[in-house]
Write a structure and sequence with these properties.
The chain has helices spanning 6-9, 17-27, 37-68, 82-96, 104-115, 130-145, 158-161, 171-174, 188-195, 201-212, 215-226, 330-356, 376-383, 402-413, 420-426, 436-457, and strands spanning 2-4, 33-36, 98-100, 151-154, 182-185, 197-198, 234-237, 243-249, 254-268, 271-288, 293-307, 318-322. With 463 residues, the chain is α/β, with parallel strands linked by helices. The strands form two sheets. Strands 6, 7, 8, 9, 10, 11 and 12 form a seven-stranded antiparallel β-sheet that branches. The chain has a five-stranded parallel β-sheet with strand order 3-2-1-4-5, with helices on both faces. Helix 3 (37-68) packs across helix 4, helix 5 crosses helix 6 and helix 14 (402-413) packs across helix 16 (436-457). The longest helix is centred in the first third of the chain and has 32 residues, at 37-68. It is globular.
Length: 463
Amino acid sequence: MIVFDTNVVNRLSPSSPRADLIHALRSSGHHRVGVPQMVLEEMVAHQAKRYYKAHLAAAEALGALEAETPWTPESVLADFDLERCQEHWRAAYADIFEVIATSGEAAFKGLAREAMALPPAKDSKPVTGGRDAAIWFSVLEFMDENPDEGVFFVTGNHRDFGDGSAFAYPMNEDLEGKEDRFTLLPDFDSVVQRFTKAVPGEDAAAAAAELLSSDPYLGEISTAAFELEAPASFVGIGPSGEPVTWSSWALLPNVELLSVANVTGHEIEGDTWYTAEAQWLLSGVVHSAADAESCAASVWQIKVLLTTGTDRDGSAPTLLAAQDPALPRAEDEERCIAVVRRVRESVRRLGGQAQQLVLPDVTRSLRPLLTSLESSVTRQLADSLPKFTLPPSLTRIPHPYSGAQIAKILANSHPAYDTSWITKAALRSLAPTTGPTARLKQTDDVAENHESDEQDEHGGEAE
């Protein structure tokens, strides 16, 4: 367990490289990284104090503006909300660190140590250091509760905690029996040097771009984009370059990697971990603000954590921070419009191809099979097959797999048709497993099982 003192991670930004490295250490599975609860509260308090000072300065500036303005300014300053600020930073830091409880006993011992002016409390006037002592006893309690764990305590407070070579009385007695499991590190850089190996910038950038362009990662980004919830709406670009306001994807969107920037890499216990800022081009059928379906493309910028670990191939990248999908930059606009037009033409082509299908006894029994797709594209497909009849037992296919079965029927009947989008759409109904690739295989396997059942029941003439 790597345990940080307040002075090492104070005012840590959740989007900073240091926070990214902590995420990587924790995600590696080789290290635990935490802070005592007392450290967490000190970090929250420091952020809240900054917020209070900034709000006070804004109120004074607004008052000065009102005093010098001959009319009533329309500017309004939101009320000071200390509790909301504290809750925000507690949640933000709890996402970065494992929080080690500071028990009531640890807090009491810390105050008692301060009253006696004994280390790690300060022998000063006035006597202080009760919080430092509570942090110290929190770490010792963790070691008592985890006898197989070693602790690397990272602190820049060498005056009170020492340099690690020796510990003042009574801290030396506090550590009795734990000396071989306790190591003191002086700063954040010592953590980087001890537990990671930096990857050269060019190598990191190339490796991250290759990973982010691979099918497993593209699939995970598509799923994450599909699950986005808009507090209001997002903005994209339509086939003619017009802005499209949309709220959600009707189907899993297509994903292309536009760019990768600000890549850092660290090798941790044999695995290499990267953080990168990636821009993705999302395109497909969306639910527009007018509650209709449209074709659109948006650019989605995300900060991701990913790894080349051989035992983690295909695992989902960790999304560290994400902006809302937005309009493309001017230099990407032409490319985005071309992508949206291809999506639109694919939708039209599929509808036209579906109308040309000639299969015996086609009826409305296709409709129950299509309910998992929920989009104008799939309704168009269903409406254009008025004569299509499936054997009755096919309608018993479990709801999540209907898209795969439809795709299989169409592909077998007309191999030239591109029906992959139907199978992808069926994925939205599946419970998360190990990623889109695994879910796709599961879908196809089930479809094949049902096909075999039909051949058994109908003498091999199911299709």
